[in-house]
Amino acid sequence: MSTRSQGAPQVPYGAAEGRRYPLAPARPRPALAVGSRLTLETVASRSGLHPDLVRRFVALSLLEATRDDRGDLWFPPRTLATIARIQRLRASLCLNYAAMGLVLDLLDRIEELEAAARAGASAMAAPPGGPAPRDRPPTVR
After folding, report:
1. Spatial distance between the Cα atoms of 70 and 51, rounded to a whole number of angstroms
2. What is the Cα–Cα distance from 76 to 32, expressed in whole angstroms?
3. pLDDT in tens, 49-75
4. Of 46, 114, 111, residue with least CA distance to 84
């Protein structure tokens, strides 16, 4: 039988003592490195890949990485998005990792061309002298 009154708010067991019982145990995340560069261990754990596979991606030039004086690999923050892209392409197109470099380069080039086309289209949409004044009708030639 409960000793709490019916009108009192229900507090989860253990909350009164300051304990929390999350639904899923939280696993510690490796901290970001100085300057928001990522270590090999951080990239591997957050992407779910083995560190050796991440090293292989670097060797195949699928990922950009720099080495410090000790020889440790450091990755830019966009690396996790690149890995997700590689995994999606591998799953949907069944490409090997060696061919993946070519596909990634082509996709990057397509993005650049689309951005240039959007910029050109927006420049063409604006009249050369700026917008027409609202107090007089546009002139017809």
Report:
1. 17
2. 11
3. 999 999 999 999 999 999 999 999 999
4. 46
pLDDT per position as a tens digit, 15-50: 455 555 455 444 545 554 456 899 999 999 999 999
Q: Rounded to 10 degrees, what is the CA torsion of 21, 23, 29, 35?
A: -100
- Give the pairing type, strands 38-39 and 66-67: unpaired
Domain edges within the chain? 34-123
The stretches of 32-138 forming alpha helices (DSSP H) are 40-47, 51-59, 79-93, 97-125
Looking at the domain 34-123, which fold is it? Multidrug-efflux Transporter Regulator; Chain: A; Domain 2 (1.10.1660)
The pTM of the whole model exceeds 0.85: no
Q: Please report, in angstroms and rounded to a whole number, the separation of the first and last CA atoms in the chain.
A: 91
What local confidence, expressed as pLDDT, does residue 17 receive?
Answer: 53
